Amino acid sequence: MKAKRLGVLASAAFVLTLGCAIASSQVLFLSDAAPFERGGLTQSGFIQVGHDNVVVDPTVRRYTGMVAALGSPNAQGKMYSFMPSPVGPHNFPLSPNDLLRGWRLTVLSGKRFGQVFTVSTNTESEITVTAEKGALDGLGERDVFIIESIDADGVSMFGPAGGTSAAPSPGV
After folding, report:
1. Terminal CA-CA length for the chain
2. For residue 153, which of 141, 164, 138, 139 has the smallest C-alpha distance?
3. pLDDT number for residue 92
4. Cα 30 from chain centroid?
């Protein structure tokens, strides 16, 4: 009786090992996948997560930064300007010729997280937003932001004339 039970346990262990071996041979690991080939991943049980269908328009220029200092409030006590500090490797130096005029500014951290503004003017050391979307009140030093060359309609300002962006831009 004991030998029969041992044989059944050994057979069960063999079947379990064989099943695991077959199942693991069907799994496709991300390191083995061909670049940009997503078809095999869904068949293997992997689920793609993150931002779905985000198409970044290559004509969109970006300036990422952090608030270094807050600007002075106007006569009504509202603040519309701040001094930026560049963050990231692909930034460009700001110039006094209002290079960012009309660009979209999105706050990425702090109390104003997710708020979108339009740049009114800029110099090498200060960025001012329009009053149309409200004041920057609540913006704090060290808050992170991104300024993109996207107009009010969500279209790249450097794209083809009369053309549209590769994908609608969020937050507009």
Report:
1. 76
2. 164
3. 84
4. 22
Q: What angle do CA 162, 165, 169 make, to 5 degrees?
A: 135
Q: Domains in the chain, ordered, with CATH?
A: 2-43 (no CATH), 62-148 (2.40.10)
Q: Tell me which long-range contacts 164-169 makes (C-beta under 8 A, separation of at least 24).
A: 165/57, 165/60, 166/55, 166/56, 166/57, 166/58, 167/53, 167/54, 167/55, 167/56, 167/57, 169/57, 169/60, 169/104
Angle (CA) 85 148 151, round 5°: 140
CB proximity list for 139: less than 8 A, separation 6 or greater: 67, 70, 79, 82, 107, 110, 111, 112
Q: Token pair 């030998």 is at which residue?
A: 3
pLDDT tens string for the chain (172 positions)? 666 666 666 676 676 676 666 655 555 554 455 554 555 444 555 566 665 566 666 777 889 999 999 999 999 999 999 999 999 887 888 888 878 888 999 999 999 999 999 999 999 999 999 999 999 999 999 999 999 888 767 777 776 655 544 444 333 3
